[in-house]
TrEMBL record:
Gene3D superfamilies: Metalloenzyme, LuxS/M16 peptidase-like (3.30.830.10). Keywords: Signal. Pfam families: Peptidase_M16, Peptidase_M16_C. It comes from Comamonas avium. This is Insulinase family protein. Transmembrane segments: none annotated.
Length: 486
């Protein structure tokens, strides 16, 4: 499952939201209506508890259908690994399906299916998660299964020997056979030099080749402790009943000391960084990453938080809907420079953030020409600002994305889990939307002027190489997500 943070829906899927701007002057009334409908009644309000062993419980009642989503979130991901065992967080996610003291390998999934449920798991830089979507009257059953797996995961070495080969093949298919994935992997390793975000979530192949079963067991014992975990449940449930079940299952797991990740601040960048990635491919590709601030505190935003939000708006102005600035100027314009062009602002995470401009040069155009054209669009905003109608459209679509997410029990649970990982309150969505509405054209112009200098930029260029005789064409799709499914 690929999870897009509620906050980042604006960038990732605005084109799927309403296509037309609202008339000028109606946004404030629309926001007021949104805010009034977002206030939950006591019967549907999110509630958060701390179990006796330190594990968190977050419950979102939603009685519209007799279904529930049960998720276990761990505040541990690839950024918590050490060099030499990269990819171990993701490998452990795979091994969690291979048995416990009570269950044989594969039996967990068979039992969830017998309950009428669907299940999966995911790992990224910041977290690991496991989920089941089941009829709400089987919630207690999956809580017993998941709490047992969390507390008593175990498997024989031969299961690891088989599964590590599965993970290696996943790396080959998702990264090594995808030129753009290879480029973004190299880009991250160049942008981040002292921060663990430099490591790929799937791990370096050399580390996977040398990984042992005990490497995975040690990571499990170190990080899978109650104080690093949260249970998130959304759906047709009674809060007090869920709390009692949680204490009877997860609450019986003994508390253990939690490992504290050491802060690893990224070193100051001292100039442009450039890399070339040579891969068999049909077209060139260019990606530019600019160091950017992150959102850390949604309840009392400081200057860095506000700049991060303004960068999110800038990204949406550039590439947040069909016919946005990059598409109009670079793909559809008379001087067509690109076959495609995009922007993204990854402003939320436990580690540092980046703003990325990327694209595919049009026939007869070079990667260098596209690089300059992309930067020119940001310079245009820095010089001339943005129009009020552009801001209105972006903000309206963001409100729409929040409404759409409420229609999904899974979306509600995912959002709550994501915000818990980031140390944010359960109402972070509402707080962030309200802060977004305060972003002005002057704010967007200011961040366009501030964060796109040469000394903040790393450029990666895909240099197409001829294929070996008989080699099949490699995928042309974009890079694999930083979030890996089981």
């Amino acid at each position: 499952m690929k999870r897009t943070l509620s906050l980042l829906v604006l960038v990732a899927s605005l084109s799927a939201a309403a296509e037309n701007s609202v008339p000028a002057g109606t946004l404030s009334s629309s926001l007021a209506e949104w805010a009034s409908t977002s206030a939950a009644s006591p019967a549907t309000a999110v509630q958060q508890f701390t179990l006796g062993n330190g594990m968190q419980l977050i419950v979102q009642p939603d009685r519209r259908a007799p279904t529930a989503v049960h998720m276990l979130w761990l505040r541990v991901g690839s950024m918590d690994e050490v060099d030499g065992t990269t990819g171990v967080a993701h490998v452990l996610e795979h091994m969690m399906f291979k048995g416990s003291e009570k269950l044989a390998p594969g039996e967990f999934s068979r039992r969830v299916a017998a309950l009428g449920g669907l299940e999966n798991a995911f790992t990224n830089r910041d977290y690991t998660g496991y989920y089941q979507q089941i009829p709400s009257n089987r919630l207690r059953d999956v809580m017993e299964l998941e709490s047992d797996r969390f507390a008593h995961n175990q498997w024989p070495d031969e299961e690891f020997a088989k599964e590590i080969e599965v993970v290696k093949e996943e790396r080959r298919m998702r990264t090594e056979d995808n030129p753009r994935s290879m480029l973004f992997e190299q880009l991250s390793a160049t942008v981040f030099q002292s921060n663990p975000y430099r490591r790929p979530v799937v791990g370096w192949m050399s580390d996977l080749n040398s990984m042992t079963a005990d490497d995975v067991r040690n990571f499990y014992r170190q990080w899978y402790v109650p104080a690093k975990a949260a249970i998130v449940i959304a759906g047709d449930v009674d809060v007090e009943q869920v709390k009692a079940w949680a204490e009877a299952t997860y609450g019986q797991i003994p508390a253990r000391a939690a490992v504290q990740s050491k802060p690893q601040q990224e070193a100051q960048q001292l100039g442009i960084r450039r890399i070339e990635v040579k891969q068999p491919a049909e077209q060139a590709f260019v990606a530019m990453a600019f160091r950017a601030p992150s959102i850390r505190n949604v309840e009392n935003l400081d200057a860095q938080d506000k700049d991060a939000l303004a960068l999110l708006v800038l990204s949406a102005v550039l590439d947040g809907y069909d016919g946005a600035r990059l598409e109009r100027a670079l793909v559809q314009g008379q001087e067509r420079v690109a076959d495609s062009a995009s922007s993204s602002a990854s402003i939320m995470g436990r580690g540092p953030s980046v703003f990325v401009l990327s694209g595919v040069p049009a026939k007869g155009k070079t990667a260098a020409q596209l690089e300059q054209a992309l930067r020119a669009q940001v310079r245009r905003v820095a010089k001339d600002g943005v129009q009020a109608t552009e801001l209105e459209r972006v903000k309206t679509q963001w409100m729409a994305s929040q409404v759409y997410e409420r229609d999904s029990v899974m979306g509600q649970a995912q959002g709550l889990g994501n915000y818990w990982v980031m140390g944010m309150p359960t109402n972070a969505d509402e707080l962030l939307v309200k802060e977004l509405m305060k972003i002005t054209a002057a704010d967007v112009q200011r961040v366009a002027q501030r964060y796109f200098g040469d000394d903040q930029m790393t450029v990666a260029t895909l240099v197409p190489q001829p294929r070996a005789a008989g080699q099949a064409p490699r995928p042309a799709q974009g890079a694999a997500s930083d979030t890996l499914e089981h």
